[in-house]
């Protein structure tokens, strides 16, 4: 587990333990250390973590307070949300970011231990659920979730990806508790297990499915967007910290909004920054965080996301991971409303950008968009040496995917992309004359 701390002076390190986690005395001239837990490689949290940290916006906002305090930020990097929750309920992390299912566990654990937490903003979301994907080995013969019955599947229990797996299996008529052998593994461990052949499939959250597909170590079996249920990541804060330091909360959320605007305004540059900080390929980061990426970034706490959070409770209860969770009392958007002011209503009403095919040209900080996947293919066919990455939206779900990793279908004069084989097959079955074709054949037809 990697833990990183920056901007800590020697004096801050010598503070007693009771002064860590933002609990320093708020008297004039005191030092307040704000501890932020984030997941660097869960890249649709970057506006509250990796990107925010690299841009330095939070520190700048804190320095502008001029309230007599000295502020220090301690950034702590984790692989999943669970250890962030553990540290928050121990009073050692003040603000954290994690996925929707871990957020519910965060709420339940905080209430249970008498250290309540609150969802204060959203980072990235997908209204259909496309942030989670089930993948198999690249040469696997599996074509649908039904093929996983009786097989070994790796996931992180209690994560958003586990929630997708459970719901998807249920819809496929498979008991998620008895129909498969589920292994509870960290994402990196599950990825290694898939490569080693010790599991048959992996259900994980951003950015693992895209990374493994990009590396040629996996292929998509199930697109989470087929559930048509919103999934998102958000920011949670300890109630006692927020009440003691409302100005810090406002500063954090203003900084998050600035990072969000930077990402949306300069998506290629943002992808490069996140790639540099995480070691992930920038092409994978852009798949999720790009101009038409799988994730949409906006700090507003949208009603449809809160509604989805309420639906998620039943999945966690069935898995005996938590009891009832009072979502309405967990959600607290007062700080983000104050931070964003009059722009909040506009952000709340904003819709995700329409899906589009996109090419990232080598050596450029700009991408080229195309109205149809066929036009993108024609461009790629004529500029193969100039293309750094090509992305296309799934014909059914709109989930963006790498063009050379997609399942292609020829239907008359059209060539249509799909993330997973079962979605492609459904289209073929419903359209006479349609057939799946290779990527090479799709390129030839388009050109």
TrEMBL record:
InterPro entries: SsuA/THI5 (IPR015168)
Residues annotated as signal peptide: 1-21
SsuA/THI5-like domain boundaries: 82-270
Keyword Membrane recorded: no
Keyword entries, A-Z: Signal
PANTHER family the record matches: ABC TRANSPORTER SUBSTRATE-BINDING PROTEIN (PTHR30024:SF45), ALIPHATIC SULFONATES-BINDING PROTEIN-RELATED (PTHR30024)
Record protein name field: ABC transporter substrate-binding protein
């Amino acid at each position: 587990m990697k833990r990183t701390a920056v901007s800590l002076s020697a004096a801050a390190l010598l503070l007693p333990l009771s002064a860590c986690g933002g609990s320093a005395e708020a008297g004039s001239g005191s030092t307040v250390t704000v501890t932020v837990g984030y997941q660097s490689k869960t890249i649709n949290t970057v506006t509250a973590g990796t990107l925010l940290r690299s841009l330095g916006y939070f520190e700048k906002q804190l320095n502008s307070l001029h309230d007599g305090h000295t502020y220090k930020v301690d950034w702590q990097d984790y692989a999943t949300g669970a250890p962030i929750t553990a540290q928050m309920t121990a009073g050692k992390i003040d603000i954290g970011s994690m996925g929707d299912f871990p957020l519910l566990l965060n709420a339940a654990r905080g209430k249970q231990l008498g250290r309540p937490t609150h969802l204060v903003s959203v980072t990235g979301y997908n209204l259909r659920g496309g942030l989670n994907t089930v993948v198999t080995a690249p040469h696997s013969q599996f074509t649908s979730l039904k093929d996983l019955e009786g097989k070994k599947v790796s996931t992180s229990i209690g994560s958003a990806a586990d929630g997708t797996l459970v719901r998807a299996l249920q819809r496929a008529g498979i008991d998620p508790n008895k129909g498969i052998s589920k292994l509870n593994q960290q994402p990196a461990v599950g990825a290694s297990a898939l490569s080693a052949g010790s599991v048959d499939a992996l259900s994980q959250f951003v950015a693992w499915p895209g990374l493994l597909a990009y590396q040629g170590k996996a292929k998509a079996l199930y697109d989470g967007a087929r559930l048509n249920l919103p999934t998102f990541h958000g920011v949670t804060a300890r109630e006692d910290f927020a009440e003691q330091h409302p100005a810090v909360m406002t500063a954090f959320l203003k900084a998050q909004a600035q990072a969000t605007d930077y990402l949306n305004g300069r998506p290629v540059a943002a992808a490069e920054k996140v790639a540099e900080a995480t070691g992930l390929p920038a092409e994978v980061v852009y798949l999720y965080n790009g101009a038409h990426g799988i994730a949409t970034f906006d700090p507003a706490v949208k009603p449809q996301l809160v509604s989805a959070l309420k639906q998620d409770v039943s999945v966690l209860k069935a898995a005996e991971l938590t009891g009832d969770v009072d979502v309405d009392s967990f959600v607290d958007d007062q700080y983000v409303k104050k931070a964003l002011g009059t722009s909040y209503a506009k952000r709340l009403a904003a819709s995700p950008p329409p899906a589009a095919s996109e090419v990232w040209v080598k050596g450029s900080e700009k991408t080229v968009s195309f109205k149809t996947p066929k036009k993108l293919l024609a461009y790629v066919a004529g500029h193969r040496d100039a293309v750094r990455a090509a992305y296309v939206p799934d014909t059914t779900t709109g989930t963006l995917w790498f063009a050379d990793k997609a399942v292609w279908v020829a239907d008359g004069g059209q060539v249509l992309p799909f993330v997973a084989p079962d979605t492609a097959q459904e289209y073929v079955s419903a359209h006479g004359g349609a057939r799946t074709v290779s990527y090479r054949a799709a390129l030839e037809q388009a050109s």
